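Thread: Modeling a multi-component assembly for a lab meeting

Hi all, long-time lurker, first post. My supervisor asked me to bring a structural picture of a complex we are working on to next week's group meeting, and I have zero experience with this. I have the sequence lines for every component (728 residues in total). Could someone generate the structure of the whole assembly? Inputs are pasted exactly as I received them:
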Amino acid sequence: MKIDGIPYRTIWLADDASVAIIDQTRLPHEFVIAHMTSVAEAVYAIKTMQVRGAPLIGAMAAYGVALAIRADASDAALDAAIAVLAASRPTAINLAWALKVMDGVLRPLPPDQRADAAFARAAQLCDEDASTNRRIGEQGVAIIREHAPRKVGGVINILTHCNAGWLATVDWGTALAPIYIAHDEGLPVHVWVDETRPRNQGAALTAYELGAHGVPHTVIADNAGGHLMQHGQVDLCIVGADRVAANGDAANKIGTYLKALAAYDNGVPFFVAAPHSTIDWQLNDGGAIPIEERDAREVTHITGRTETGAIATVQVTAPGSAAANPAFDVTPARLISGLITERGVCSASANALTALFPGSTPPQ
Amino acid sequence: MKIDGIPYRTIWLADDASVAIIDQTRLPHEFVIAHMTSVAEAVYAIKTMQVRGAPLIGAMAAYGVALAIRADASDAALDAAIAVLAASRPTAINLAWALKVMDGVLRPLPPDQRADAAFARAAQLCDEDASTNRRIGEQGVAIIREHAPRKVGGVINILTHCNAGWLATVDWGTALAPIYIAHDEGLPVHVWVDETRPRNQGAALTAYELGAHGVPHTVIADNAGGHLMQHGQVDLCIVGADRVAANGDAANKIGTYLKALAAYDNGVPFFVAAPHSTIDWQLNDGGAIPIEERDAREVTHITGRTETGAIATVQVTAPGSAAANPAFDVTPARLISGLITERGVCSASANALTALFPGSTPPQ
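Re: Modeling a multi-component assembly
Sure thing. I ran the full set together rather than chain by chain. Output:
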């Protein structure tokens, strides 16, 4: 998608054969491109959330393997790279999936052919992600379109949580892909953007990318969505997912569950948009999805821009008070109106998922 | 309650006959006492939330009338003071209630007797609030005590939203009063403190006052409570209220509804603690409670303390993005396990409220 009229992806191979990313820890106040030249830098980028979002983490991991193999193409180096990348974030299944893809391609090859193959496969994985997300958008826009006839003269209000836009993927996004297509088609969409504490991915990233593309939106505190739904100000919710269990339970950014409860209580459709690589066929339900506990400092301190334009970090909690920071929660399938995948929209159930993805084997 | 071992109330008549308050916009990083000498200053204190919390707003309004009457004891001045104070915050019913009390006392008196009577009634209203809240605590501690036998060797985890502690009242608090008494009795309580965006009253005020009193607590993002409830880490929820309708629907800080939904979904008891002055017998249900829309800047900007100790305000949203800021939501009575009042605990229903408060006439 575009920033100031220039088309970007979130990750690409730069001219100097380093891997370039948009440093998302600097958004929305600074647009900075960072360059990765080693697997250690790739791990650092994932851990510090310079790149984040399940699909983009997968893409970064694939390039991380490529960077490792370029330095040392041995089996031992491949094993080490996969191990350190796999441990960089625990919740997103795309990370493990991308590493599995890379391992499958590289291990059978003689070491001297591995580097070229690794960069080629990583680039292909990025292209596939952009293409998959575009298809998610095409599937999901039909849901938005259904609301248009009831909204003559008004806007279609869509609530989203966290950032599942193009910045969370290689391009297009998952939850936001249908919204971009709807907007480009001329449907009068307006997005309620949950700020998404503690890291404010909504206020910082979703608001930034929607604004850059010209999509009308309003940032709200995470607390506000229930009230808006009670008052008919939300027509539907679309969120992304970090992992979807075989029964349709979906792990996503902490607080997603609360919005799903409110949507259910108010009869507002609640959709989860995710590519097939997000589905963990090994898990019967969401109870076994590991939930990352992140640094308490993400709760106690907030970074933003002062009036003078400087970037500053302030403590907002009472001095001495402890904080806890679970990063994800699991929304039970019973609260989900449907899953928007690149292959179609289906109900959040084992039967529907199996029907859409026959075989239900672990994705390769 | 105490700060650094010194007992305080949130509002008191100072030696120079000004009305002293703890400036809550400066907490938790600075402890500053402000002095009000006019009704305009009282209105400013309420509007800018130097004082906040429904009971404390009522107390400030009562003293605001006294300050006005000291300057001009005419009926016209009384009318003007009541009008400007009534308009200072729309949601808390205690404000209207306190003004009605003051009007009832002052209007029958000859002007030259009004100032003394006004200060006396305001002081009495403060004493009554402290005493009422102490009784709410005594009623509510029984609910906490019920959890103790199941928690041998463990802690009783109580989640609260916003600040309904002593800082929200004249003393003791509403939702936190039972917790202070439980803690003082030696019950092993631990409080999950919702940070309560956008104004962070939980992170700043609830955490501050619990810490000052020595009550174990942990600050969490507002998004986290549902996840904690799903995992059995919350034994009960206690929140305050800004207005309770005759059927038990309760308006409280934005986001309360989401926690009530999660509590209901997970079988966690959810209690609303409020004095009788919070009950609006004129409203059959919560649908008619006016919900204040506050400045968008409360969402887009956050104030805190930098590493050097300076107080700074930073913008956290993407530049140019709009924000909306509804300040309260209404939790339907069906999601509330019970109301903790100074007269007893009752179910959130018209019948139970009428039984506890026979007559159900507007409070005087």
